[in-house]
Amino acid sequence: MLALAIIMQFVIVDSFYLSALRALIFTHVIEMNLLIVLSTSTAYIFSLISFTSQMIEHLLLTEEFFKISTLLVTLIMLEQ
Known about the structure:
It contains four helices and no strands. It is an all-alpha fold. α2 (14-27) crosses α3 and α3 (32-55) packs antiparallel against α4.
C-alpha cells in the first residue's frame, strides 16, 4: 500500500500541486486544486507518521495506512 500511495502522491497529484501553487502565487486565489493538495498531503503525511511510529513500536491507534490519500486521489481523478 505504501508503494501505491507514493505513486499516487508524487506522480498523479503532481499536476494538482503545480496548478495550485500557480494559482496561489500569481492570482492569490484559493481554488479547488489547493484543497485537493492539502487534503491528500495531510492524509499522506499522517499515514507516514503513523507507519513510522508503528515500525519503531510506538503504536498509535490507527489501522488504516495510506488508504485515505489514495482513495481521495482516485475519487478526484474519476470525477474529472
